[in-house]
Design a protein that fits this description.
The complex is a heteropentamer, with 1 copy of chain A, 1 copy of chain B, 2 copies of chain C and 1 copy of chain D. By secondary structure, chain A is mainly α. Chain A has helices at 3-12, 15-56, 59-64, 80-111, 114-129, 132-150, 159-183, 187-195, 200-211, 213-229, 232-237, 255-263, 272-304, and strands at 68-69, 76-77. The radius of gyration of chain A is 25 Å and the shape is globular. Chain A starts with a helix and ends with a helix. The longest helix of chain C is centred in the middle third of the chain and has 14 residues, at 158-171. Chain C is globular. In chain C, the strands form 2 sheets. In chain C, strands 6-7-8-3-9-10 form a 6-stranded mixed sheet, sandwiched between helices. Chain C has a 4-stranded antiparallel sheet with strand order 2-1-4-5, covered by helices on one side. In chain D, helix 1 (21-34) packs across helix 10 (241-261), helix 2 runs parallel beside helix 3 and helix 10 runs antiparallel to helix 11. In chain D, strands 1, 2, 3, 4, 5, 6, 7, 8, 9, 10 and 11 form an 11-stranded mixed sheet that branches. In chain D, strand 1, helix 1 (21-34) and strand 2 (38-43) form a beta-alpha-beta unit. Chain D has 11 helices and 11 strands. The chains are: A mainly alpha, B mainly alpha, C alpha/beta, D alpha/beta. At the A-B interface, helix 2, helix 4, helix 5, helix 6 and helix 7 of A face helix 2, helix 4, helix 5, helix 6 and helix 7 of B. Bound molecules: adenosine-5'-triphosphate (ATP) (2 copies) and magnesium ion (2 copies). The site of one magnesium ion (MG) has 3 residues of chain E, from helix 1.
Chain lengths: 305, 287, 259, 281, 259
């Protein structure tokens, strides 16, 4: 055959190519270890100090105590008020983000014209780009006074204002990811439903949303973990009062806000008070990890159907 | 039978209408929130936006305060963050999609990544503090900050790159294999170019997230008065969100305006990055 | 064009139908009529407008963004495009089965069959078990799935899924059944079974079937329409079209000179 | 990078209290304007965080809203860090109420203690003085990790970190201003500087019959709520030209700059005295 | 089975080939041989294993996760599955064209043609312009694209894209050309052009073409193999298979009784 072919045949067993392929494979393998190393790094960074903390404070009391006042005399280390504050804000945020985000996603994927969608979707995604410091001040200067107008007994710092701001902040995440999931639902399914005499709303609720469930749930989970981990908004708007309460009109403190408070505060490093932030950080980490594992389970299950 | 088939009952029609209205109000609320936020920022901050605002260092006088050091710090930090997270993120995505199949290792890495995606940003602050600031003695340098943020946004890059790689049609890979392409050649010449728009979108998404992050930087001690431009990766730095956070709690009302102007600049940068992303996307998707 | 002289027994009449996607016209002034209790086959090369044509018959065409049409489609002498007519009710009277089997993946076999009834809220007024059994039997699927009605429909084989989709279409008791290449994703045995099924169904319905398989068209249909580039080149009795086509292009296509 | 102006170059690392931060920031800004070659960084890690870095030699100067504690001194000693404590200003903690509050003009230390002490049962104004109305008080104060809180609890309640916990706390004094300004039954305490910037929105309360102002704070007449603010300087660093220049600049200009920030400067000769205390180069 | 008596001129010989996807066997003990300068057509109903068969001939089968095979495939008497043989070099010697035209969307027409050469690093050693012109001419595409070689390949029509893919396959100078239903996504005119092209190409190559169009098989091929359910039911000269099939199932299929 021709010259080229002779060349190609000569180079085909060439050790160089084989070597290059495996070198690349090895390199990619090494770089892929970064996420695993990161996880171990986080565990090390949190748990080493946490371990020292629990040599001084009973872990049972820590997990079951209902008063958190490590910086007040008498010091008490019950993490529950911080956990409650975190969950209160998260729950409120989800109550806002899920319906608004999902509704927006359905509107974009089922009702809006492609043109409208092309314009609106990036606009909504901008909301996700606004630094959360800004939402924090919105919550304090704009949302909180509104709340006080409706509920005069509300504290100027309250969980509700923070929750609303966190909710608004996570709306774009839910909207954009859910919309992606819904757009990915095969056109065939929509057509099948239309052909059976379904109207648009029925197609959306009975066919598209269930078929996109795993993606939608994934967006909820992401919103949830962003809400749990949100720091600046709660720090600015929810107050700094650890309190075991379910009343969203009261001032509370979340785990994240506590961590920032201490890391900017006057507590001597290395003191037991300072170690509380590692213990609190560990609780936060474990909370989000459990949530993620559960969510992975759920999405995997709904994907199987 | 004809009666049933007559069509939608009134109730169905009303329900459909209400559902439509509910979705419509959801989108209006979303956009309304955006409008309120942006308007508020504009009203507060627009007056302070000027060339000297961009070219001055921070000051205790709101009228003189500027964001030069913050802008340079942010540029430094974003560049380094991109430098770390893009190659590692894309490599990991390639490895997971093209090399591992359904192995245990792949499953383990994937679980790790989805967990990391949910880890609160402040926890990355602990990591950055313990590992980069202390153990590796990078102190509170640009390097520490960008490594921390790179790890923080790495899952976003990985997952979106994975998705972009996954949707490259099998037919294209087969075409390459059938022409005698090796695995890496196929990835390099066919898979990566085709998934490029998706990867760029993911990277921009990740960097937009990184650029507004405050909490992890506070954790590594970056909340600092800095009136100089970083001169290397080991230089101390400040960044836009940090500078905003520094100004907002001040007693003088002037600083609140300056902070709002800082937010406008930050939004402008995010806008600009998204604009570039969509240009790249359109350019490549047309092909 | 030949063979439009069958209007008198027509269930569906198509008058001067044209259709567009955006600016791109894909159907040009189609006239045809669909007879009750007959199978009408639509053949033609890929992209000639077969799918678009039958999607105009139950107003599915308009669900595509940017798509529009002109002309009239009469179902029992009533124009289904009249503004007072609800497209949703039309789709209920004119059922459709698609090329790719598309059972609802989140629903069980049982729920798939009654999905149409549930949507319209009729489910409460009727005996669902009975309907599911009847429709699955009609679709020749009952014996294979009767013990696993609660399992997801996506777990069935391709041919079974397609029969499930047919059962689902039958459950809303349509008057006309449109099928867009229902066998093209199926193996020979499954194809055989669907063909037998069509033979049964035509006793009660007017059936329109798009197919790229000429042998299939000649086996199962009474009427055949041949489309080319958006035009209905020829429409008439199947036996006549396949033996003495009136148009050179039809002949070329049928004898496999292209397509 | 040889530095212009006076030709100095180098890096001065400062960290510590957020209370002292505005003063050091002002000094640094002016210093940087004159010495572009020197990179001054002022962190905000809190007094404790600042001392931690100071005691390991990471920083040259530490801002402090309190004196160094024994364990912190011990750590510095262990690391061989010798240092100089310099007083740079006074801060007066102010007690504030809403301007619509017509009845509270002054409070005594005892009344404050009654309000703020651990386990306090004061719920309404009436619980403080019989003549005051029977409305709920809304209490605002800094977060438990701030220097202001530490100082206030020590001065009023007698022991550091002893306080009632059921008040509205925020780390951010500015949001406390918002809180007190927004509620007519509010009472709060925070730094004098924040009052100065928001005089129109707040009403200041005399303590033991003395209203805080520059004179009363500096003279100590506004007792017990005026406190000194410090910077700590590493002696080894002070041998460096850049650090020395910075510290001298600090003490020379503090008198003027402290006033701008809302804090209370020392008397002029007090700054002179401290310059003299600096070891000769 | 009939007609395996052509081994003497065989370019490719298939011996006892079986293939699986996971646990699912899709080819059963296939024996056949591909003659140089002849066109071998592979026909059979959908899912019978035609694609799997030709994908075993250039080791593309093994790129599918979970796929495996048994048996031998000899190219010029050398077993391509021998462990010392690099699959990459085999695929270079045995080119392939797919059912759906799949030009690389990110590359220009020019780059598409030379993609194979670039992959192997040969591009530097040869005159690319010459090769592009020759291959596009061979693929009967040159005259239509010579003025826009820098434009993206995806901008061409379906038929042009398919010819571009053929040109791309030719550029690496394979010895055997496999085509998996290359015309099924094309319109009649494009099909005609590809058939003409195959007629030209067979002067230099051994060609294997899968088709679902019996007429096409009879028009263009010298050899035909009929697959059913993973078995090669019949393999032999095309004229003989289409006139006097040796197997009842072949006859049923060819006369359109199923499929
Ligand atoms: N959603 C759409 N948007 C724009 N053009 C379309 C769309 N769907 C089909 N077309 C175009 O309309 C024409 C007719 O398409 P149609 O699907 O009706 O053909 P068909 O005969 O059913 O083909 P096939 O046998 O491949 O299914 C084609 O040119 C096609 O490209
Ligand atoms: N990637 C795959 N994984 C598992 N099974 C597969 C895969 N590809 C094909 N099969 C199965 O292998 C059998 C043969 O498939 P193949 O694609 O070879 O058929 P074919 O004759 O080419 O059909 P068609 O005419 O539809 O292209 C079929 O039963 C098919 O379901
Ligand atoms: Mg079609
Ligand atoms: Mg095939």
């Amino acid at each position: 055959m021709s010259k080229i072919n002779a060349l190609s045949r000569k180079s085909k067993h060439g050790p160089k190519r084989r070597w290059g392929e495996s070198a690349i494979h090895a390199l990619l393998f090494l770089l892929s270890m970064v996420p695993i190393i990161t996880t171990f790094g986080i565990i090390y960074a949190l748990f080493a100090e946490t371990f020292l903390f629990f040599q001084e404070v009973s872990i049972i009391k820590f997990l079951t105590g209902t008063v958190w006042s490590p910086l007040l005399v008498p010091k008490q280390f019950g993490i529950l008020p911080l956990v409650a504050g975190t969950l209160l804000v998260t729950a409120g945020a989800i109550l806002i983000a899920v319906p608004i985000g999902l509704g927006s996603a359905i509107f974009l994927s089922e009702y809006a014209s492609p043109r409208t969608r092309r314009i609106i979707k990036p606009l909504i995604e901008i909301l996700a780009g606004i630094p959360t410091v800004v939402y924090g001040y919105m919550a304090l200067l704009f949302i909180s006074p509104l709340i006080q107008k409706v509920f005069p007994q509300a504290n100027i710092f309250n969980a509700a204002a923070a929750a609303i701001a966190v909710g608004v902040m996570t709306v774009p995440m839910v909207a954009s990811l859910s919309e992606d999931a819904m757009s990915a639902v095969p056109a065939g399914l929509r057509e099948a439903a239309y052909a059976l005499g379904a109207n648009r709303a029925e197609v959306a609720t009975r066919v598209v949303v269930p078929a996109a469930a795993s993606g939608i749930v994934a967006s909820f989970v992401l919103a949830l973990s962003r809400a749990i981990g949100e720091t600046m908004i709660v720090m600015l708007a929810a107050g700094a009062t650890p309190r075991l309460t379910a009343n969203p009109l009261e001032s509370i403190q979340t785990i994240t806000a506590y961590i920032v408070q201490v890391s900017l505060g006057e507590t001597p490093w290395g003191s037991m008070e300072y170690k509380t932030i590692f213990a609190a950080g560990s609780v936060l980490f474990i909370m989000t990890m459990i949530m993620n594992l559960v969510a992975t389970r759920i999405t995997r299950k709904s994907r199987r159907i | 039978m004809m009666d049933q088939a007559k069509g939608q009952s009134r109730a169905r029609k009303i329900k459909a209408r209400l559902f439509y209205l509910a979705c419509l109000s959801a989108i209006i609320i979303s956009l309304g929130a955006l409008a309120v936020l942006l308007t508020d920022m504009f009203i507060r901050g627009f007056g302070s936006l000027s060339l000297s605002f961009l070219t001055s260092f921070p000051s205790r006088f709101p009228a003189k305060a500027g964001i030069k050091s913050a802008i340079f710090g942010t540029i430094w930090m974003m560049s380094l963050t991109a430098l770390f997270c893009i190659p590692i993120g894309i490599s990991t995505a390639i490895f997971l999609e093209e090399y591992t199949g359904n192995s245990r290792l792949a499953a383990f890495i994937k679980i790790n990544i989805s967990n990391l995606a949910g880890v609160p940003s402040i926890v990355y602050g602990f990591l950055g503090l313990a590992v980069f600031v202390r153990a590796l003695s990078f102190n509170r340098s640009v390097l520490s900050g960008s490594l921390t943020l790179a790890l923080l946004v790495m899952p976003i890059v990985i997952v979106s790159s994975q998705e972009a790689i996954r949707v490259v049609p099998r037919a294209l890979r087969e075409a390459s294999y059938a022409l005698g392409g090796t695995r890496w050649q196929t990835i390099r010449r066919v898979v990566l170019p085709s998934s490029f728009p998706g990867i760029v979108t993911g990277v921009i998404l990740a960097l937009s997230r990184a650029i507004g992050e405050t909490a992890p930087l506070i954790m590594i001690g970056a909340l600092t008065f800095i009136a100089f431009v970083p001169d290397g990766p080991f230089s101390e730095f400040t960044a836009l969100p940090i500078q905003i956070f520094n100004w907002v709690p001040r007693p003088q009302a002037g600083f609140h305006q300056v902070a709002a102007a800082g937010v406008l600049v930050l939004l402008g940068i995010i806008f600009f990055m998204n604009g570039i992303a969509s240009i790249i996307r359109n350019r490549f998707e047309r092909h | 064009m030949k063979g439009t002289d069958v209007t008198e027994q027509a269930r569906v009449s198509i008058k001067n139908l044209s259709a567009w996607f955006g600016e791109h016209q894909v159907l040009f002034d189609i006239n045809a009529s669909i007879r009750d209790k007959w199978v009408t086959a639509i053949i033609g090369p890929s992209g000639c407008g077969k799918s678009t044509f039958i999607r105009c018959l139950n107003r599915m065409h308009e669900t595509v963004p940017g798509a529009r049409m002109k002309g009239r489609v009469l179902l029992d002498d009533e124009d289904i495009y009249k503004s007072s007519v609800d497209p949703v009710s039309i789709r209920r009277r004119i059922g459709m089965v698609f090329q790719k089997p598309n059972p609802f993946p989140t629903m069980s076999i049982f729920d798939n069959v009654v999905a149409g009834l549930r949507l319209s809220g009729q489910a409460r007024r009727v005996n669902l078990n009975e309907i599911v059994e009847r429709c699955l039997k009609q679709a020749a699927l009952w014996s294979q799935v009767k013990d696993r009605l609660k399992e997801p429909g996506a777990g069935l084989s391709g041919g079974q899924q397609q029969r499930l989709c047919i059962a689902r279409a039958l459950a809303v008791e349509p008057e006309v059944l449109l099928m867009d290449e229902p066998c093209s994703a199926l193996d020979p045995a499954a194809t055989q079974r669907i063909e037998d099924l069509i033979f049964e169904l035509k006793k009660n319905y007017a059936i329109v079937i798009v197919t790229h398989n000429m042998q299939q068209a000649s086996r199962i249909s009474e009427h055949t329409g041949f489309f080319l580039n958006g035009e209905l080149v020829e429409f008439g009795e199947t036996s006549q079209i396949f033996t003495t086509p009136g148009d050179k292009r039809t002949e070329d296509y049928i004898t496999g000179r292209f397509g | 990078n040889a530095g212009d102006g006076k030709g100095l170059s180098g890096q001065v690392k400062i960290d510590g209290s957020s209370t002292v931060y505005p003063i050091t920031e002002a000094v640094s800004e002016e210093f940087q304007n004159e010495n572009r070659g020197v990179h001054v960084t002022v962190g905000l890690s809190g007094t404790g965080g600042g001392f931690k870095k100071f005691a390991t030699g990471e920083t040259d100067i530490s801002n402090a809203s309190r004196a160094m504690k024994d364990e912190e001194k011990a750590e510095a000693k262990e690391n061989g860090i010798k240092y100089l404590e310099l007083k740079v200003a006074f801060d007066g903690l102010s007690i504030l109420v809403n301007p619509d509050n017509g009845f509270v003009d002054d409070l005594t230390s005892a009344e404050l203690k009654k309000i703020w002490n651990r386990g306090s049962r004061v719920k309404t104004w009436r619980d403080i003085r019989r003549s005051w109305p029977d409305r709920r008080i809304k209490l605002f104060g800094p977060g438990t990790d701030s220097g202001t809180f530490d100082y206030f609890t020590k001065a009023i309640n007698g022991e550091e970190d002893v306080s009632r916990a059921d008040y509205t706390a925020s780390e951010d004094d500015n949001t406390l201003v918002v809180g007190v300004a927004g509620d007519k039954d509010a009472l709060g305490y925070f730094g004098y500087a924040y009052y100065m910037e928001n005089r129109d929105k707040l009403k200041i309360v005399a303590v033991n019959g003395v209203k805080p102002n520059i004179k009363t704070i500096r003279s100590g007449k506004y007792a017990p709520l005026s406190r000194p603010l410090f910077i700590y300087v590493n002696k080894k660093s002070l041998k460096r030209k850049d650090v020395r220049a910075y510290v001298e600049f600090y003490l020379k200009n503090a008198g003027e700059l402290v006033g701008e920030t809302g804090y209370v400067p020392l008397g002029p000769d007090e700054y002179e005295e401290q310059i003299d205390r600096l070891p000769k180069p």
